[in-house]
Amino acid sequence: MLLDWAYAAAGAPWIDLAQLAADVVGTGHTLGPQAATDRAYRLLRTLPPEASRFVVGLAGMWAIRAATVPDTVMPQISAWRRARSAALRPLVTRLITELRDPGFRDPVRP
User: Fold this and answer.
1) Mind giving me the DSSP string for 30-95?
2) Is residue 14 classed as helix, strand or coil in its secondary structure?
3) Dihedral over Cα of 7, 65, 43, 50: its sign
């Protein structure tokens, strides 16, 4: 099931799908974290390499902001950012491995 979110991003045509991949992993999947990571990875493999870089940057931004930017209006946002960043770590590891070594063959990739 796919639900539309409150706003769509402006920019490259792949940006919404890359954000969706991050959200699938960050929010969770009924089949568990590994399934979420695998599905997000497969989605990102259909997009330009910039989409993977975007997800890696997004996870890094969440981690940095959770550690350095206290939010006085929504204090729980730091915990949310930390949880999202931690959930994305396995996906980010796969993506960075692939970006470093374009010949890398992930066992999940068909």
Assistant:
1) TT-HHHHHHHHHHHHHTS-HHHHHHHHHHHHHHHHHHHH---SS-TTHHHHHHHHHHHHHHHHHHH
2) coil
3) positive
User: What pTM, to 2 d.p., does this model score?
Assistant: 0.78
- pLDDT tens digits for range 86-100: 999 999 999 988 777
The rounded distance, in Å, linking the Cα atoms of 70 and 53 is: 26
* C-alpha 38: how far from chain center: 11
CA distances from 55 to 14, 43, 73, 76, 83 (A): 11, 12, 26, 22, 15
Q: Count the Cβ atoms, other than its own, within 10 Å of residue 21.
A: 30
Using an 8 Å Cβ cutoff, are 24 and 39 in contact? yes
